[in-house]
Amino acid sequence: MIVNKDALVDEDIVWRKAEEQIERKVKSAPLGLIVHTLNEVNEQLQKGHYFFKDIREQGILLFDANKKALAEPGDLTDEERLEIAQGHYNHWFQSAKEFQEFFELAITKGYINKAAFELHQATERFYACTLLTLTNYLPKTHNLEKLKKYCADQDLAFADIFPMDDKFHRRSFRRLQRAYIDARYSMHYEITEEELRYLAGEVEKLKELVERVCLVRLQG
């Protein structure tokens, strides 16, 4: 979705409602809206950003309100693409592992809410590592469910992490999802050590999957 005002990009409630309405009408595949301004898209195209270049070349135009053309894309060599991907992997994988360590320290000291936030950040960063390494693109969201869907589009194995097959698993993931805001600012946020230990195990599985998927791309 390309919009003409910066403020529209951050209208999360608007885009969430749009996604829900489209999902009710289109049952064939899950949908995730990605929203940027025209200036952002053109800037990335001129830099040779291959995610936006693929959209420009392969995307299907559904509606055009202002008829403004997209910029001509620049080009990156295979070596430049590999260097960018390797840089993303090095930074984000290490960052995610550090938040795993912060989680262990916090839960050892009994700082349950802080542990939840640290685990959320580890999860978000492993997803970010995957998306940036494979596509050089990261959506502007802290929503773990959306990030999981985007990663599953790259490799279906991501759909198996954080299963939703029973009440405990669903409740645990919802509480992890809320931890980015509520674990820091809400007096009513709740999560148990049992839930955190289960979630930490899933994050460890996520780490192993991210490492495997990304290294296949980098070494291939």
TrEMBL record:
**InterPro entries, per database record:** HEPN_dom
Domain HEPN residue range list: 93-213
Q: Which Pfam families match?
A: HEPN
Query: Which domain of life does the protein's organism represent?
Result: Bacteria
Matching SMART domains: HEPN (SM00748)
Protein name listed in UniProt: HEPN domain protein
State the species of origin.
Vibrio aerogenes CECT 7868
- UniProt lineage: Bacteria, Pseudomonadati, Pseudomonadota, Gammaproteobacteria, Vibrionales
